[in-house]
Amino acid sequence: MGPGLFVIAILGCADGSAQCQQVAMLPTRYESRATCAAATGQVLIAATQFDFSELQAVCRSVASPGTVQKAHQVRNQG
Questions:
Q1: Bridge partners (DSSP) listed for residue 8
Q2: Least C-beta-crowded within 10 Å: which of 27, 37, 50, 64?
Q3: Total domains in the fold of the chain
Q4: Which of 65, 62, 51, 44 is nearest to 21 (CA)?
């Protein structure tokens, strides 16, 4: 995937990974999906404060602050 900003979301899952919910979003932003994905293992090792039978760490794309500002301006003009 191309350039962008990504963050790691931690999901807590019930039995069988069917019932997952987001329990945390880490503030660190990554410049690519690959660098984000490389960090997920360490994030899961450190995520001991959540009481779920299974935890997952997923990378989610986020808009850069400039993109958010431009989208807000376009909506306000329309």
A1: 59
A2: 27
A3: 1
A4: 51
- Among candidate residues 38, 35, 32, the one with its CA nearest the CA of residue 2: 32
Domain that holds residue 25: 5-77
The pLDDT, as a whole number, for residue 63 is 74
pLDDT, tens digit, 9 for 90 and up, residues 18-63: 789 999 999 999 999 999 999 999 999 999 899 898 999 999 999 7
Check: CB of residue 62 under 8 Å from CB of residue 7: yes
Contact status, residue 61 vs residue 8, Cβ threshold 8 Å: no
C-alpha dihedral, 27 to 51 to 55 to 26, nearest 10°: 0
pLDDT bracket for residue 69 (50, 70, 90):
very low
Amino acid at 25: M
Within 10 angstroms of residue 77's Cβ, the number of other Cβ atoms is: 6
Amino acid at 13: C
